[in-house]
Amino acid sequence: MQEVLPGVFLGPLQIAKVNSTLHANKITLLVPVRTKDTARFLSVPNDENGQPWQSFPVDIQYDQIMSWFYRTHLRIQEEVDKGGRVLIYCENGNGLSAAICVALVMDSKLYTPQPLPFFLGLGAYDFRWEYRMAREFVQRKRYSINIPDWARFALEVLSRPDFISC
Predict the structure, then answer these.
(1) How far apart are CA 96 and CA 66, in angstroms?
(2) Rounded CA gap, 162 and 75, in Å?
């Protein structure tokens, strides 16, 4: 488990299942990033009391990851602003969860997000960091990331300066 941004960690499912590690890192929110194929085993784990951890599941259907970037950014920002800490994870912590982390890094240097016009779709968002720079930043924290091509393409589109005119 690596800290990608202050209060935001990236890791695999195995870490999310270990309560002692989550408590030691003061994790307050779990963000499982899953597809319909991985949803059955990427469930939210229970704490010592048998209660599920507080979570914000990102359920990607039919390779539609773009609409999740903004919603996830808002929820994670809300948790971090409250003083919480977030673990973003997928099966191995290198694929879709890394894509979400790259999207967060692409906009991490802004003070206020700049929403795009509503007609561009739910969660349309003006990202500021170029994709390759953000990916390299995350890869320095977690060397083994391997973002799927379809998610990489969505991130590249969002980082284009002419995205509004596309």
Answers:
(1) 12
(2) 27
Q: Residue 138: which domain range?
A: 2-160
Q: At what angle do helices 149-159 and 131-141 cross, to 10 degrees?
A: 130
The partner residues of 9 in beta bridges, in order of sequence, read: 3, 87
Question: What pTM was computed for the model?
Answer: 0.78
pLDDT tens-digit map of 103-153: 888 876 543 444 544 444 444 454 567 788 888 888 888 888 888 888 888
Residue 165 falls within a domain, yes or no? no
Domain count of the fold of the chain: 1
**Angle, helices 149-159/96-106, rounded to nearest 10 degrees:** 10
Would residue 87 count as lying in a domain?
yes
CA–CA separation, 1 and 22 (whole Å) = 10
Which CATH number characterizes residue 10's domain? Answer: 3.90.190.10
For residue 163, which of 126, 131, 129, 132 has the smallest C-alpha distance? 126
Nearest to 125 by CA among 116, 112, 117, 133: 116
| 166 domain residue, yes or no | no
Q: Is residue 124 part of a domain?
A: yes
Q: Specify whether the CB–CB gap between 30 and 44 falls below 8 A.
A: yes
